[in-house]
Task: structure prediction
Amino acid sequence: MAEAPSRRDARSRLELQAIRALLDAQRRRIRAYVELQQSSAPVRAPVPPPVPSDPTGHEVLDALPLPAVLVQPLIGEDGSVRDAFYVRQNAAAREYGASRLPESALPLWSGPAALFAHFPALAHTAVPAMLARAYRDRTPQGPESVEWVVSTARCPVRLNDEVRVAPCGEHLLITWQPGHRRRMTDAAQQLVRTCWAEWNLGDLHVEPSRRFHEVLGLPGGTPVPTLFDLAATVTADTLPQLYQALYDVILRKRKTECRLRLAGAGERVFRMVAEPVRIAPGSLVWALRAVLIDVTAERRRRETAEYAAREAHRQLERVEAVTEVADVLRQAVIPQFQDELGSYGLDAAAVYRPDAREARIGGDWYKARKLPDGEPLIALGDARGHGLEAATLMAKLRYALAGLAYTEQPVERLTQWLNEVACADGTESTATAVIARYQPGPARLRWTCAGHPRPVLLRDGRATQLPDPVDGPGLTLGVLPGATYTAAATDLRVGDIVLIYSDGLTERRDHDPDEDTRRFLAAAEECLAEAVPRSGHDALQDYAERLVARLDGPHRADDATLLALRRIATD
Result:
């Protein structure tokens, strides 16, 4: 493993040597091509034509491809330029004025016209200082960016030019060209972190864009890197891509692109798109022209997105695994009622709605089973928390209660023992529960409440909450060891329905618990009025399903359970 870096460095040196050999070979081809062209040139020089007369100043001015104005500066006593008077302008200047300004805004050039008097905004730009320096030092000035506004009858016109001033005898020559193209070019390079250059393969001359150094992160004033200099700064992993790009452009004479990572702070990444520049159509490649786009931020965003995707995939796998465990656990601990309690004169139905945010299982549990003394045990509880932790505590309490119930002790004692089990499990192992035993003879339900919502009785179409035991509701399970509980007794008539439910079915965030209870009572009565459940388990199950559906919704933030018991006539 220790030899890996040295092998990588050696391979990089070989790749750099290959790039140097490729560039040197192309330089030799270009030199041979030029020598061949020179050797085939005519040996005898042609006879020169007669020398024509010198052109006039006006002809020279009109020959300039740029807009130009010849002015006579008016110098003040302090050496500043007070104004400049028009002497002559060329055809390009007239075309520029006609294209950018209406005729009413242009001065009448029949005689000397003061520029700053006619265009006041021009006096507040860099032009006066440029005129003064050119007149005083007799040296060309500029180019400088000059932005000014001309007021016209239609609207203000904004002008943005690159201006030069040069001495011309006793006059000064002002030339300019539209500056918005240069500014837009600079802005484009800065906005999208783009630069370009043309590398001459014959004499190693490089023509870069204005912000070449800034975009590549090179110190200002340093020489523009040759192609080999650029290769020397590329990281080892992208060096082969650069060699392939140079090979495609120089030898295959085709456009190509690659990604380059430049060594240094942050290892910035660039997308390079290159094309060949030929001496003549079909001939060898004279230069390489390329655009370099900084894609470092794009690469980092992509890496972040890929990392997030991997994390999301891992989390999805974890959720799927937890969900599978939760489903198995729920099937193991949540019974499905049919006719288990029918022999005791009871119909039973249960509806369970898990909290979808927590792997489809929570801490709710319920139980109904026959005890050795012939009385059924009925219980519903809610363990603290969500997910597998709550499900684990739920399973402990449920199976602990099943074992304790075989002692044939009253529900007060069972609840007290179950509290001790929860206290011994840890400070976070708290739960609420309603634990009841049904006595078939007197049709009496004896029940305790440990911090849980009290059961609701449906009788003659009215829903009421059962009164608390004499000593009030007991403490939540797992809060205080040694807590005692008292039971309440409720005699049931034929057709009475007892609803035992978890608070997840009724509780709403930032709502009054009493209001939540009243909403549950109203919903129970409304569902009963819509369709009184006929005899049999299926009808009671349908009523329970409709009641839960009416109370359920996106506002629920916990799992919800409803257990419905109805006394039926027995032979």
Notes: Residues 1-7 have pLDDT under 50 and may be disordered. The longest helix spans residues 296-333.
